[in-house]
Specification:
This is Bouquet formation protein 1. The chain is extended and about 125 Å long. With 284 residues, it is an alpha+beta fold. β1 and β2 form a beta hairpin. The protein starts with a helix and ends with a helix. It has a four-stranded antiparallel beta sheet with strand order 2-1-4-3, covered by helices on one side.
């Protein structure tokens, strides 16, 4: 109740309030922050704030600041704080949402979005302010037909679509250097004429080197692991389990060749000796 009284004490003429808020903003900020913490996710506290006039005081506070002709960065930041508190006070509470419709909160939030385009306001501050206003607007229209109708009547949907389009156009694309991606294709041939392929396509950031490991098995079957790696110093992706198995099979294949080579030679030598022995017996 004391917190709501602090907010309602500002209900006076506009000129008196402007002078008062310039001197007493350091009192309003912690008061609204405490209210937001108390009512967040608590329907009972939301009801008490509404019954004690706190919701009306917050919306009146927002209305008086929205009517400022040339808001500075600190004014926009303060309005953002009030909008955030109002969003906490009405979120998920049907009666509070209905009261917000009576007080014209949707119209005020749309005015706040327009206020963010005021010349002289820092771009980062304005963007964060718009985000808070859109979030509060989404809370306001959630499961409340009256607020939804007010949003349509105020052409709020068109405004949101326009903002979304502007964000997509003006958002700069990421630099190619920050997109440290690459393309990796894993192709495993299981039987003749049949292949299962797992492809990951990414954008390369520079020259790449290709490494192909081919391991041939019996019956004409082959397993191929093709990887494209970024040069040394760039981030690379770990090889897949299929590529590790292919490397292990290659190692086993190479090892078996080294072992079988001497045996093959010795077999050839024994055949040659048998031939020589047969020739000598024929001569005799």
């Amino acid at each position: 109740m004391l917190l709501c009284c602090d907010l309602n004490s500002s209900d006076s003429t506009e000129g008196t309030y402007i002078q008062w808020q310039q001197k007493q903003r350091n009192i309003i900020l912690p008061t609204t922050a405490l209210i937001a913490a108390i009512v967040s996710g608590n329907a009972e506290c939301q009801s008490k704030v509404r019954l004690l006039g706190g919701l009306r005081a917050l919306i009146n506070l927002l209305r008086q600041h929205v009517e400022l002709k040339e808001p500075a960065d600190q004014d926009v930041s303060f309005i953002e704080h009030v909008v955030d508190t109002i969003g906490s006070a009405i979120a998920g509470h049907a009666i509070c949402l209905d009261s917000a419709a009576d007080l014209g909160l949707v119209s005020l939030l749309i005015q706040c979005i327009d206020l963010s385009h005021t010349p002289g306001v820092d771009d980062a501050v304005a963007k964060q302010f718009r985000t808070k206003c859109i979030l509060a607007l989404s809370i306001c229209v959630d499961q409340c037909e009256r607020n939804q109708q007010q949003l349509r009547d105020r052409e709020g949907l068109e405004l949101l679509i326009e903002l979304l389009t502007q964000e997509q156009v003006t958002t700069p694309t990421r630099d190619a250097e920050t997109q440290t991606d690459y393309q990796e294709t894993l192709s495993v041939c299981t039987t003749a004429g049949q292949c299962s392929t797992d492809t990951r396509e990414r954008i390369p950031t520079g020259e790449v080197t290709q490494e192909t490991l081919s391991v041939c098995t019996t019956g004409g079957q082959c397993r191929t692991n093709t990887r494209e790696r970024v040069p040394t110093g760039e981030m690379t992706q770990e090889s897949s389990p299929s590529s590790r198995k292919a490397i292990q099979r290659k190692k086993r294949f190479v090892t078996s060749c080294k072992v079988l080579t001497p045996l093959t030679r010795s077999k050839n030598c024994s055949v040659e000796n048998d031939r020589r022995g047969a020739n000598s017996e024929t001569k005799n």
